[in-house]
TrEMBL record:
Lineage, opening ranks: Bacteria, Pseudomonadati, Pseudomonadota, Gammaproteobacteria, Alteromonadales
Protein name: Amidinotransferase
Entries under Pfam families matching the protein: DDAH_eukar
Gene3D superfamilies, per database record: L-arginine/glycine Amidinotransferase, Chain A
Amino acid sequence: MQKLIPTKRNPQAPSAVIMIRPHHFYANPQTEGDNAFQRLASEPMKTADLTGGGNLSKQAYEQVTNAAKILTAHGIQVHIFEDETQDKPDSVFPNNWFSTHSGGHIAIYPMFAENRRKERRSDIIDMLKQKYRVQDVLDYSGLEHDGLYLEGTGAMVLDHIERVAYAVQSNRTNPLALERFCSHFNYEPMLFDAADEHGTAVYHTNVLMCIGTDFVMLGSDMVSDETRRNEIITRFEASGREVITLTPEQIAEFCGNALELQSAQQRLLAMSQRAYDALTSAQRDRLEKSVALVPLDVSAIETAGGSIRCMLAGIHLAARSI
């Protein structure tokens, strides 16, 4: 099937990402309480796995390595950083502590779990300043002292074209922090509640929806208020996007946790192999009208409650020429 070939920079789909390769990966005990997606491996973890020293950790290391190679082969610039520490189990998910924005802006976010606050790294910010045009860095991490949290593009799914920040209210997404971000970065906040069939609140918005250039994948049935649900769908349709509805079962398989990227030749949709397998053939056909689907095996990492979109911190900055 013929793919759309971009002719200019796309504000929605970055062409470069940052990934963190963990050397001691394990499911974070501090995030298990409000992350219904987080689970242990299919077989009981050994003690070594709980400290990042077992087979699960090795699998995570290899899966990040392979995912970076595949994305690079598809024309995406991947900046990979190593994490050799043992006290940052979720460092593989960098999109929660910082984001980048056109015009040369970087935001640094307040994190809910105390051990996740250690993930913020000055070397990553320094690299961005060196290789990309950075005008300013807005640091919201001080809001942690007031109990106000906003975990980056996990807490928010940003429509960079229409300038709307979609956000599920949770422990990880405080309305006041959201308003502050939106005021500074010129987004309209769209806050709403969402829960699974058991009534468990969705912890991060980016497991519920994926906004592409021409499409949106959305677990609309999980949006609690019908009026708000219809408003969200209407906004997406008014922007000219096709809304692809995901079932709660597909959301549980991380189908909403995908990220549109752009190479020099075409747009891509990075998603996990698990998510790809859970899509129907009709849904894949609809997506392939505008993107090439790139399934990636991140099954070990998904045991921590996040998938490929959480692993990719998109770079929306202009690259320096030298």
